[in-house]
Amino acid sequence: MSTLKASELTLDSNGKVYHLGIGPNDIADTLIFVGDQSRVDVVASFFDTVRFKTQHREFATTTGTYKGKEISVISHGIGCDNIDIVLNELDACINIDLEKREINTIKKSLDIIRIGTCGALQEDIEPGSHIISKYAIGLDGVANFYDIDFTEEEIEFKTQFLETSGWPDNLAIPYMVKSNDRLRALLNGLGEEGITTTANGFYGPQGRALRIPLKHPDFKEKIRHFSFNNTRSANFEMETSALLSLSKALGHNAVTICLVLANRYSNKFESDYETKMRALIVSVLDRVVG
After folding, report:
1. How far lies 288's CA from each of 3, 187, 237, in Å?
2. This prediction's pTM
3. pLDDT value at position 264?
4. What's residue 281's pLDDT?
5. Euclidean distance between CA atoms 244 and 239, whole angstroms
6. Is the Cβ–Cβ distance between 33 and 61 less than 8 Å?
């Protein structure tokens, strides 16, 4: 069995994964992902008990119980580059012997629900409502660095999108991925199931221009008008495609549900989003415990 080099599996002085600062006994099998590190405390405020808490950089982790079920909540910051760190290090905690630096023979699987925020791409989607990501279009490119076996459905999704959108040659080729059916069913009724487009930036990559003109001003429209399997393009955000693709490749289950903060076409904005976010967190936690 090969041993993973120190430069590849990076650990801290406590023998825990470097960026997250956690080990195999610190996390539950069910996890809530949030972007904002301060939102970890919001989620944990609903826990009955807390047994573990740590933070390194923007990565905060708390493990406790909610109505008798053990749950961990982790902040991942903004962007798919951070998702790449969090997913790989989480998996290393449970599927690699950190002392021996050897991959475990028997693998464990995690359930991951990301609670995020987004901008809506359809005029009738009201700020304050929720979008459940059935599919994700990845503009980020993270999954392209890995040898991932996409399903026939995901390949067909990509083929249709590239053919119908006339996607520009000088932009990164998107990849497409589907969320976990079981976890998505768990959230059924909490919002519309849609196609989520994951961008690799907040401004230009989401069609916003302040002082730098856009190379392709109409590319947002190419996305907005695309649908697949009776599912329409619903929202823009910055993490879901990497979360779904890397989770699936590592044998984990993942889904995203987003609170809509802004509508890019009606120009409406949800000003009371913290209250709405707390309500969404409780709804998700209640679904997790059944």
Report:
1. 37, 9, 23
2. 0.96
3. 87
4. 98
5. 9
6. no
* pLDDT tens column, 126-152: 999 999 999 999 999 999 999 999 999
Q: What is the pLDDT of residue 1?
A: 65
Cβ neighbours of residue 290 closer than 8 Å, sequence gap 6 or more? none
pLDDT of residue 271: 86
> What CATH number does the domain located at 30-289 have?
3.40.50.1580
Regions in the chain scoring below 50 on pLDDT: none
- The Cα 208–Cα 87 span in angstroms is 29
